[in-house]
Amino acid sequence: MPSLKLTYFDSPGRAEPIRVALFMVGLPFEDHRLKFPQYMESKARGDFPLGAVPVLEVDGVKFTQTAAMLRYVARIGGALYPADALAALRVDSALDTFNDTLSHALLPSLFERDPAKKLAMRAEFAAGPMKLVLAYAEGLLAGSDGPFFGGQELSIADLVAALQVLQIRSGTLDGITADMLSPYPRLNALADAYLADERVIAYRSR
Ligand SMILES: N[C@@H](CCC(=O)N[C@@H](CS)C(=O)NCC(=O)O)C(=O)O
Q: Distance from the CA of 6 to the center of ligand 1, in angstroms?
């Protein structure tokens, strides 16, 4: 079994789906969480190949890119990724849509300190990229035969999507409210199915 060390901030963000995936497939790993000043020191030292996290070390070798790490965990865990090519395309497309398109569109407003400007940015985000992403993801789910992007079985894309849908639902993002998810019943059902998964329940109750 490889020795695994996952480095990220001490927050869910991009690392949480990787942490959940590692837990679900039973792979032990070092969950290396950095406070922001520690992160800045490490970054200045050149500890991260692309100057960003997450970074996954496999037997001491550093890798970047969240989606690649998730696929690696799925592959060595023999789970969380469909065998069927079309289902895999849906999973990969959903994974990049949430991890890449949605995350990048949300990012600038996370750093905005002026509350009025933040709300204006969130309104643009909700009416623009968020709406496009949610509508596209809802359509992907309509083509699946289960609550998840790959069908009946939970995949790495569902981990990423469920956590982002739950963040929207939580009301913790100023200007973004749970009712914005009302037009997307399949995404709400995906998040519910994620929360009902026994492995997820075990992860959340540690
Ligand atoms: N494409 C990369 C993006 C990584 C990324 O943007 N990481 C952010 C945190 S979520 C980061 O390290 N930001 C701090 C910085 O750029 O210094 C991935 O999917 O892993």
A: 14
Kindly state if the Cβ of 65 falls inside 6 Å of ligand 1.
yes
- CA-nearest residue for atom 12, ligand 1, is 52
Name all domains of the chain by residue range, CATH numbers in brackets: 4-77 (3.40.30.10), 85-197 (1.20.1050.10)
What residues contact residue 133 under an 8 Å CB cut-off, 6+ apart? 97, 98, 101, 102, 105
Instruction: Say what the pTM is.
Output: 0.97
Q: Give yes or no for residue 53 CB within 6 A of ligand 1.
A: yes
pLDDT value of position 30? 98
Q: Identify the CA nearest to 14 among candidates 48, 73, 71, 55.
A: 55
**Tens-place pLDDT, residues 106-119:** 999 999 999 999 99
Ligand 1 center from residue 147 Cα (angstroms): 29
